[in-house]
Design a protein that fits this description.
With 142 residues, the protein is of the alpha+beta class. Helices cover 28% and strands 19% of the residues.
Length: 142
């Protein structure tokens, strides 16, 4: 896991940013918030699927969909994945839209992506236009 994400989890744990982005943590209970469980679940669900656009994007990194590590999701079922290439502190993130019909690379590491989304400095064509809210908050989850 990238060191900056480890620090984020140490500070916040698993939970929801701005009532919209659900962050996972390793070895977390309940299972739906456990980073390892979500990564394994996604790998199984993506393995063997056609997903030509995602496969093309990942091929540029020498990766495949079943190698992605899911670290968060939105309440709209969009999913945030690390592309685990190189050292963990350099892993890029791909955001995959619900239904796997679109994807986009997001700039920076997971903490800078969250900060950028919550301050409005990063805009995504996949996420809703009303993100972020006027006063983004974090809600820890058990």
């Amino acid at each position: 896991m990238p060191p900056n994400h480890q620090a984020l989890i140490a500070r916040y744990g698993a939970g929801v940013f701005d009532e919209f982005i659900v962050l996972y943590a390793p070895n977390w209970s309940p299972e739906y918030l456990d980073l390892g469980h979500r990564a394994a679940e996604s790998a199984a669900g993506l393995a063997g699927r056609e997903l030509p656009e995602l496969r093309e994007l990942l091929a540029a990194y020498g990766s495949r969909p079943e190698e992605l590590i899911r670290w968060a999701h939105s309440h709209n079922a969009d999913r945030f994945f690390w592309i685990p290439i190189g050292t963990p502190d350099q892993w890029p993130t791909v955001l995959v839209a619900a239904g796997q019909l679109d994807q986009e690379l997001l700039p920076g590491d997971s903490t800078s992506i969250l900060l950028g989304l919550l301050t409005g400095e990063i805009r995504s064509r996949i996420l809703p236009d009303d993100l972020p809210s006027d006063e983004p908050q974090f809600e820890p989850l058990p």
